[in-house]
Design goal:
Helix content: 25-40%
Distance between the termini: 43 Å
Number of strands: 13
Strand order of the largest sheet: 3-2-1-4-5-6-11
Order of helices and strands: EHEHEHEHHEHEEHEEEHEEHEHH
Shape: globular
Number of helices: 11
Length: about 350
Protein backbone atom coordinates (compact mmCIF):
# COMPACT_ATOMS: atom_id res chain seq x y z
CA UNK A 1 0.00 0.00 0.00
CA UNK A 2 1.28 3.46 -0.93
CA UNK A 3 0.32 6.91 0.26
CA UNK A 4 -0.82 9.21 -2.54
CA UNK A 5 -1.55 12.93 -2.57
CA UNK A 6 -4.01 13.80 -5.34
CA UNK A 7 -4.45 17.53 -5.91
CA UNK A 8 -7.68 18.53 -7.63
CA UNK A 9 -9.31 15.50 -6.01
CA UNK A 10 -12.81 17.00 -6.32
CA UNK A 11 -12.23 17.54 -10.03
CA UNK A 12 -13.25 15.25 -12.87
CA UNK A 13 -10.05 13.23 -13.32
CA UNK A 14 -8.96 13.67 -9.70
CA UNK A 15 -12.18 12.11 -8.43
CA UNK A 16 -11.93 9.08 -10.72
CA UNK A 17 -8.23 8.61 -9.94
CA UNK A 18 -8.81 8.83 -6.19
CA UNK A 19 -11.62 6.29 -6.42
CA UNK A 20 -9.39 3.90 -8.35
CA UNK A 21 -6.43 4.28 -5.97
CA UNK A 22 -8.68 3.63 -2.98
CA UNK A 23 -10.10 0.52 -4.63
CA UNK A 24 -6.51 -0.65 -5.16
CA UNK A 25 -5.94 -0.42 -1.38
CA UNK A 26 -3.89 2.77 -1.29
CA UNK A 27 -4.18 5.63 1.19
CA UNK A 28 -5.28 8.83 -0.54
CA UNK A 29 -5.03 12.41 0.64
CA UNK A 30 -7.19 14.63 -1.52
CA UNK A 31 -6.60 18.35 -1.90
CA UNK A 32 -8.89 20.84 -3.66
CA UNK A 33 -9.85 24.50 -3.29
CA UNK A 34 -13.42 23.87 -4.55
CA UNK A 35 -13.38 27.01 -6.70
CA UNK A 36 -16.46 28.07 -8.61
CA UNK A 37 -15.08 27.81 -12.17
CA UNK A 38 -17.96 25.36 -12.60
CA UNK A 39 -20.78 23.96 -10.43
CA UNK A 40 -19.37 23.50 -6.92
CA UNK A 41 -22.18 21.10 -6.03
CA UNK A 42 -20.88 18.64 -8.62
CA UNK A 43 -17.47 18.77 -6.92
CA UNK A 44 -19.05 18.28 -3.50
CA UNK A 45 -21.04 15.28 -4.75
CA UNK A 46 -17.86 13.68 -6.07
CA UNK A 47 -16.15 14.33 -2.74
CA UNK A 48 -19.05 12.89 -0.80
CA UNK A 49 -18.50 9.54 -2.52
CA UNK A 50 -14.77 9.60 -1.76
CA UNK A 51 -15.30 10.52 1.89
CA UNK A 52 -17.29 7.32 2.39
CA UNK A 53 -13.96 5.47 2.33
CA UNK A 54 -11.86 5.39 5.50
CA UNK A 55 -8.57 5.53 3.56
CA UNK A 56 -9.44 8.95 2.12
CA UNK A 57 -8.71 12.27 3.82
CA UNK A 58 -9.69 15.62 2.31
CA UNK A 59 -8.05 19.02 2.73
CA UNK A 60 -9.69 22.17 1.37
CA UNK A 61 -6.54 24.01 0.38
CA UNK A 62 -5.32 26.15 -2.49
CA UNK A 63 -1.95 25.35 -4.08
CA UNK A 64 -0.98 29.00 -3.70
CA UNK A 65 -1.28 28.69 0.11
CA UNK A 66 2.33 27.83 0.88
CA UNK A 67 1.80 27.65 4.64
CA UNK A 68 -1.06 25.15 4.43
CA UNK A 69 0.79 23.10 1.83
CA UNK A 70 3.97 22.96 3.93
CA UNK A 71 1.97 21.93 6.98
CA UNK A 72 0.38 19.05 5.04
CA UNK A 73 3.73 17.81 3.71
CA UNK A 74 5.42 18.14 7.11
CA UNK A 75 2.84 15.84 8.70
CA UNK A 76 2.67 13.17 5.99
CA UNK A 77 5.18 11.27 3.86
CA UNK A 78 3.78 10.82 0.37
CA UNK A 79 5.09 8.06 -1.86
CA UNK A 80 3.58 9.69 -4.91
CA UNK A 81 2.03 13.08 -5.63
CA UNK A 82 -0.36 13.38 -8.58
CA UNK A 83 -0.91 17.04 -9.38
CA UNK A 84 -4.20 17.46 -11.24
CA UNK A 85 -5.18 20.78 -9.67
CA UNK A 86 -5.09 23.51 -12.29
CA UNK A 87 -7.13 26.25 -13.83
CA UNK A 88 -8.48 24.43 -16.87
CA UNK A 89 -10.04 25.61 -20.10
CA UNK A 90 -8.55 27.21 -23.22
CA UNK A 91 -11.26 29.84 -23.79
CA UNK A 92 -11.41 30.98 -20.17
CA UNK A 93 -7.69 31.80 -20.36
CA UNK A 94 -8.53 34.52 -22.87
CA UNK A 95 -10.62 36.41 -20.32
CA UNK A 96 -9.03 35.51 -16.97
CA UNK A 97 -5.29 35.00 -17.55
CA UNK A 98 -4.25 35.72 -13.96
CA UNK A 99 -6.14 32.66 -12.69
CA UNK A 100 -3.83 30.51 -14.83
CA UNK A 101 -0.66 32.17 -13.57
CA UNK A 102 -1.67 31.74 -9.93
CA UNK A 103 -2.91 28.15 -10.10
CA UNK A 104 -0.82 26.64 -12.88
CA UNK A 105 2.50 28.43 -12.29
CA UNK A 106 2.66 29.66 -8.69
CA UNK A 107 0.75 26.63 -7.42
CA UNK A 108 2.92 24.23 -9.39
CA UNK A 109 6.22 25.62 -8.12
CA UNK A 110 4.85 25.24 -4.58
CA UNK A 111 4.15 21.56 -5.31
CA UNK A 112 7.64 21.11 -6.76
CA UNK A 113 9.23 22.65 -3.67
CA UNK A 114 7.23 20.48 -1.29
CA UNK A 115 8.03 17.33 -3.28
CA UNK A 116 11.70 18.25 -3.29
CA UNK A 117 11.92 18.87 0.45
CA UNK A 118 9.51 16.06 1.31
CA UNK A 119 11.57 13.38 -0.45
CA UNK A 120 8.59 12.38 -2.58
CA UNK A 121 9.47 9.33 -4.67
CA UNK A 122 7.52 10.41 -7.76
CA UNK A 123 5.65 13.50 -8.93
CA UNK A 124 3.13 12.85 -11.69
CA UNK A 125 1.41 15.94 -13.11
CA UNK A 126 -1.20 16.79 -15.72
CA UNK A 127 -0.01 18.48 -18.85
CA UNK A 128 -2.27 18.81 -21.87
CA UNK A 129 -2.59 18.05 -25.56
CA UNK A 130 -2.92 21.82 -26.02
CA UNK A 131 0.86 22.18 -25.64
CA UNK A 132 1.14 20.99 -29.27
CA UNK A 133 -0.34 24.33 -30.32
CA UNK A 134 0.65 25.19 -33.89
CA UNK A 135 2.17 21.73 -34.55
CA UNK A 136 0.54 20.03 -37.54
CA UNK A 137 2.50 16.75 -37.87
CA UNK A 138 0.10 13.95 -36.91
CA UNK A 139 -0.06 12.05 -34.68
CA UNK A 140 1.34 14.42 -32.06
CA UNK A 141 4.57 12.93 -30.68
CA UNK A 142 6.22 13.63 -27.32
CA UNK A 143 9.53 13.62 -29.20
CA UNK A 144 8.56 16.72 -31.20
CA UNK A 145 9.28 20.25 -30.00
CA UNK A 146 6.26 22.12 -28.66
CA UNK A 147 7.37 25.72 -28.68
CA UNK A 148 4.33 27.42 -30.22
CA UNK A 149 1.36 27.26 -27.81
CA UNK A 150 -1.82 28.99 -29.01
CA UNK A 151 -3.33 29.89 -25.62
CA UNK A 152 -2.08 30.98 -22.23
CA UNK A 153 -3.50 27.76 -20.79
CA UNK A 154 -1.29 25.76 -23.16
CA UNK A 155 1.69 27.97 -22.30
CA UNK A 156 1.28 27.29 -18.57
CA UNK A 157 1.17 23.54 -19.21
CA UNK A 158 4.33 23.74 -21.31
CA UNK A 159 5.87 25.80 -18.49
CA UNK A 160 4.96 23.03 -16.02
CA UNK A 161 6.96 20.56 -18.08
CA UNK A 162 9.95 22.90 -18.13
CA UNK A 163 9.71 23.60 -14.40
CA UNK A 164 9.47 19.88 -13.63
CA UNK A 165 12.55 19.22 -15.75
CA UNK A 166 14.65 21.68 -13.77
CA UNK A 167 13.69 19.93 -10.52
CA UNK A 168 14.47 16.52 -12.00
CA UNK A 169 17.83 17.85 -13.19
CA UNK A 170 18.82 19.86 -10.12
CA UNK A 171 17.44 17.74 -7.29
CA UNK A 172 16.93 14.28 -8.79
CA UNK A 173 13.16 14.53 -8.25
CA UNK A 174 11.50 11.92 -10.49
CA UNK A 175 8.77 13.68 -12.50
CA UNK A 176 6.37 12.46 -15.16
CA UNK A 177 4.19 14.79 -17.21
CA UNK A 178 1.03 13.45 -18.84
CA UNK A 179 -0.47 15.17 -21.86
CA UNK A 180 -4.18 14.36 -21.65
CA UNK A 181 -6.28 14.37 -24.82
CA UNK A 182 -9.94 15.56 -24.58
CA UNK A 183 -11.05 13.59 -21.54
CA UNK A 184 -14.75 12.75 -21.21
CA UNK A 185 -17.00 10.42 -19.24
CA UNK A 186 -19.26 10.17 -16.16
CA UNK A 187 -18.87 12.97 -13.59
CA UNK A 188 -17.36 15.12 -16.35
CA UNK A 189 -16.79 18.86 -16.45
CA UNK A 190 -19.78 21.03 -17.42
CA UNK A 191 -17.54 23.33 -19.51
CA UNK A 192 -16.55 20.48 -21.86
CA UNK A 193 -18.23 20.03 -25.24
CA UNK A 194 -19.93 16.67 -24.65
CA UNK A 195 -21.48 17.86 -21.37
CA UNK A 196 -22.65 21.16 -22.90
CA UNK A 197 -24.06 19.42 -25.97
CA UNK A 198 -25.99 16.91 -23.87
CA UNK A 199 -27.48 19.61 -21.66
CA UNK A 200 -28.47 21.78 -24.62
CA UNK A 201 -30.04 18.96 -26.66
CA UNK A 202 -32.09 17.74 -23.69
CA UNK A 203 -33.27 21.33 -23.08
CA UNK A 204 -34.17 21.86 -26.77
CA UNK A 205 -31.47 24.51 -27.13
CA UNK A 206 -29.04 24.92 -30.05
CA UNK A 207 -25.44 23.75 -29.71
CA UNK A 208 -22.46 25.84 -30.83
CA UNK A 209 -20.38 23.87 -33.33
CA UNK A 210 -17.01 25.56 -33.85
CA UNK A 211 -14.94 25.65 -37.04
CA UNK A 212 -18.21 24.85 -38.83
CA UNK A 213 -17.90 21.27 -37.58
CA UNK A 214 -14.48 20.67 -39.13
CA UNK A 215 -12.85 19.58 -35.89
CA UNK A 216 -11.24 16.27 -34.97
CA UNK A 217 -10.48 15.36 -31.38
CA UNK A 218 -8.78 12.38 -29.79
CA UNK A 219 -11.60 11.85 -27.29
CA UNK A 220 -10.26 9.75 -24.39
CA UNK A 221 -12.55 8.02 -21.91
CA UNK A 222 -11.79 8.88 -18.30
CA UNK A 223 -11.27 5.23 -17.24
CA UNK A 224 -8.48 4.97 -19.82
CA UNK A 225 -6.90 8.16 -18.49
CA UNK A 226 -7.00 6.79 -14.94
CA UNK A 227 -5.51 3.44 -16.00
CA UNK A 228 -2.66 5.32 -17.65
CA UNK A 229 -2.05 7.55 -14.61
CA UNK A 230 -2.02 4.58 -12.21
CA UNK A 231 0.43 2.61 -14.35
CA UNK A 232 2.71 5.60 -14.87
CA UNK A 233 2.67 6.47 -11.15
CA UNK A 234 4.11 3.01 -10.43
CA UNK A 235 6.78 3.42 -13.12
CA UNK A 236 9.29 5.84 -11.59
CA UNK A 237 11.40 7.47 -14.32
CA UNK A 238 15.17 7.20 -14.45
CA UNK A 239 17.77 9.08 -16.46
CA UNK A 240 17.88 8.28 -20.17
CA UNK A 241 21.49 7.12 -20.78
CA UNK A 242 21.14 7.79 -24.51
CA UNK A 243 19.96 11.38 -24.10
CA UNK A 244 22.06 13.83 -26.07
CA UNK A 245 22.27 17.59 -25.78
CA UNK A 246 23.28 17.69 -29.45
CA UNK A 247 19.92 16.16 -30.42
CA UNK A 248 17.78 16.69 -27.31
CA UNK A 249 14.72 14.45 -26.92
CA UNK A 250 11.94 16.57 -25.35
CA UNK A 251 10.30 13.46 -23.79
CA UNK A 252 13.25 12.42 -21.60
CA UNK A 253 16.41 13.74 -20.03
CA UNK A 254 19.69 12.98 -18.29
CA UNK A 255 17.58 13.46 -15.17
CA UNK A 256 14.66 11.26 -13.97
CA UNK A 257 12.12 12.93 -16.25
CA UNK A 258 9.47 11.64 -18.70
CA UNK A 259 6.61 12.97 -20.81
CA UNK A 260 3.79 10.78 -22.15
CA UNK A 261 0.68 11.30 -24.23
CA UNK A 262 -2.49 9.66 -22.93
CA UNK A 263 -4.98 9.70 -25.78
CA UNK A 264 -7.26 7.31 -27.61
CA UNK A 265 -4.89 7.23 -30.63
CA UNK A 266 -8.00 7.44 -32.82
CA UNK A 267 -9.38 10.94 -33.43
CA UNK A 268 -13.11 11.35 -34.04
CA UNK A 269 -14.81 13.88 -36.31
CA UNK A 270 -16.83 16.31 -34.21
CA UNK A 271 -19.89 15.81 -36.42
CA UNK A 272 -19.69 12.05 -35.88
CA UNK A 273 -19.49 12.56 -32.10
CA UNK A 274 -22.58 14.77 -32.27
CA UNK A 275 -24.42 12.12 -34.32
CA UNK A 276 -23.52 9.45 -31.73
CA UNK A 277 -24.83 11.72 -28.99
CA UNK A 278 -28.04 12.39 -30.92
CA UNK A 279 -28.58 8.66 -31.39
CA UNK A 280 -27.95 7.91 -27.71
CA UNK A 281 -30.27 10.70 -26.56
CA UNK A 282 -32.90 9.91 -29.19
CA UNK A 283 -33.03 13.60 -30.15
CA UNK A 284 -31.61 15.70 -32.96
CA UNK A 285 -29.47 18.72 -32.16
CA UNK A 286 -30.11 22.17 -33.56
CA UNK A 287 -26.63 23.20 -34.68
CA UNK A 288 -25.26 26.73 -34.62
CA UNK A 289 -22.18 26.60 -36.87
CA UNK A 290 -19.47 29.07 -35.88
CA UNK A 291 -15.87 29.93 -36.83
CA UNK A 292 -12.95 28.40 -34.92
CA UNK A 293 -12.32 30.11 -31.59
CA UNK A 294 -9.05 31.84 -30.66
CA UNK A 295 -6.72 29.36 -28.97
CA UNK A 296 -8.44 26.28 -30.45
CA UNK A 297 -6.69 23.81 -32.74
CA UNK A 298 -8.61 22.01 -35.51
CA UNK A 299 -7.27 18.51 -34.74
CA UNK A 300 -5.63 16.48 -31.98
CA UNK A 301 -4.23 12.98 -32.38
CA UNK A 302 -2.02 11.24 -29.81
CA UNK A 303 0.99 9.07 -30.52
CA UNK A 304 1.00 6.71 -27.51
CA UNK A 305 3.97 4.52 -28.42
CA UNK A 306 5.89 5.61 -25.31
CA UNK A 307 3.01 4.67 -23.04
CA UNK A 308 2.71 1.25 -24.67
CA UNK A 309 6.46 0.64 -24.51
CA UNK A 310 7.01 1.74 -20.90
CA UNK A 311 3.82 0.71 -19.08
CA UNK A 312 2.13 -1.67 -21.52
CA UNK A 313 -1.09 0.28 -21.92
CA UNK A 314 -3.04 1.80 -24.79
CA UNK A 315 -6.42 3.56 -24.31
CA UNK A 316 -9.07 1.74 -26.33
CA UNK A 317 -12.61 2.68 -25.23
CA UNK A 318 -14.66 3.29 -28.42
CA UNK A 319 -16.27 6.73 -28.59
CA UNK A 320 -19.73 5.13 -29.00
CA UNK A 321 -19.36 3.18 -25.73
CA UNK A 322 -17.94 6.17 -23.87
CA UNK A 323 -20.79 8.44 -24.96
CA UNK A 324 -23.36 5.84 -23.86
CA UNK A 325 -21.77 5.62 -20.39
CA UNK A 326 -21.63 9.40 -20.08
CA UNK A 327 -25.29 9.81 -21.05
CA UNK A 328 -26.33 7.08 -18.60
CA UNK A 329 -24.54 8.91 -15.78
CA UNK A 330 -25.92 12.32 -16.85
CA UNK A 331 -29.51 11.09 -16.89
CA UNK A 332 -29.13 9.39 -13.52
CA UNK A 333 -27.36 12.34 -11.86
CA UNK A 334 -29.75 15.00 -13.21
CA UNK A 335 -32.79 12.69 -13.03
CA UNK A 336 -33.58 12.91 -16.73
CA UNK A 337 -35.82 10.35 -18.43
CA UNK A 338 -35.11 9.68 -22.10
Amino acid sequence: MSCYLVTGAAGFIGYHLSERLLSNGHEVYGLDNLNDYYDVQLKKDRLKRLKEQSSFQFFKTDLTDRVALSELFSKTEFDCVVNLAAQAGVRYSLTNPHAYVESNLVGFVNILEECRHGDVKHLVYASSSSVYGANTTMPFSVHDNVDHPLSLYAATKKANELMAHTYSHLYGLPTTGLRFFTVYGPWGRPDMALFKFTKAILNNQPIDVYNHGNMRRDFTFVDDIVEGVVRVSENIPVANPDWSGAKPDPASSKGPYRIYNIGNNQPSDLMYVISCLEETLGKKAEKNFMPIQPGDVPETYADVDGLIQDVGFKPDTPIEEGIRKFVEWYCEYYQVKL
